[in-house]
Structure to design on (251 residues):
């Protein structure tokens, strides 16, 4: 009885190795991966978490861990990884079964490794951790946004004070007793200082779009404002604070 030959590991029936998938990009913080069918079939623990991570688009198929898998060796076996050089993944933090932190690093020797990127698996969903420079850029952008907004509001209020005082001087030339006199020259000087400081600040970054289906909450003050005036620029999204409730640990 004829039997079908088994496919060799890491290859095809022609004996040639399969084409390597495209390498994952550096910035993939805008996507996440989740395979609910796998999670319903296998437990997510230390021994199987790497197999689950290898299904995601974050996985680099040219890493040393993949070579160990092809040789039927556990991909996180440090005794074998320390003897190799190149890109590898290591399990750095574990809080079973909710959180697993996977670090991508480059190994140049048994004791010489250079961290590259970090990924975390939170309740079965895989994310790429943001880089520190992106976190600083987002928070500085938020600070500049609010500073620029404050200068704009202060300048507009000073202009209104100057217009009201000019109209009152046109109606009567006798100042009222007890009324505070506003010096128009001083108002213009302060307005000029605020305008010059505002010009020195870099322009505020464009506000990110709201997620699909998101409806911002309407406050009591916003209900009395016309719809044309309710559109307001939003500060940049913080890659750590604005991660959404789905990325928080459920204990």
């Amino acid at each position: 009885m004829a039997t079908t030959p088994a496919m060799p590991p890491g290859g095809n029936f022609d004996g040639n190795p399969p084409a390597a998938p495209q390498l994952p990009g550096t910035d993939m913080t805008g996507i996440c991966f989740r395979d609910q069918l796998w999670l319903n079939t296998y437990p997510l623990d230390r021994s199987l978490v790497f197999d689950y991570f290898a299904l995601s688009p974050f996985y680099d198929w040219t890493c040393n861990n993949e070579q160990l898998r092809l040789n039927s060796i556990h991909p996180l076996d440090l005794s074998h990884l320390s003897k190799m050089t190149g890109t590898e993944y290591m399990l750095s933090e574990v809080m079973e079964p909710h959180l697993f932190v996977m670090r991508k690093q480059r190994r140049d020797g048994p004791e010489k490794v250079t961290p590259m990127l970090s990924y975390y698996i939170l309740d079965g969903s895989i994310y790429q951790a943001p880089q520190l420079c992106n976190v600083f850029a987002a928070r500085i952008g938020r600070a500049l946004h609010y500073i620029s907004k404050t200068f704009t509001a202060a300048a507009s209020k000073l202009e209104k004070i100057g217009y009201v005082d000019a109209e009152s001087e046109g109606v009567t030339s006798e100042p009222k007793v007890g009324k505070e006199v506003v010096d128009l020259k001083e108002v213009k000087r302060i307005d000029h200082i605020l305008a010059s400081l505002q010009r020195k600040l870099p322009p505020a970054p464009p506000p990110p779009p709201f997620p699909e289906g998101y409806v911002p909450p309407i406050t009591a003050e916003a209900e009395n404002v016309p719809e044309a005036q309710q559109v307001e620029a939003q500060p940049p999204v913080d890659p750590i604070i604005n991660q959404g409730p789905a990325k928080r640990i459920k204990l």
Q: What stands out?
A: The CA atoms of residues 162 and 238 lie 38 Å apart. Helices lie at 36-41, 49-53, 64-70, 78-81, 132-171, 184-200, 220-223.
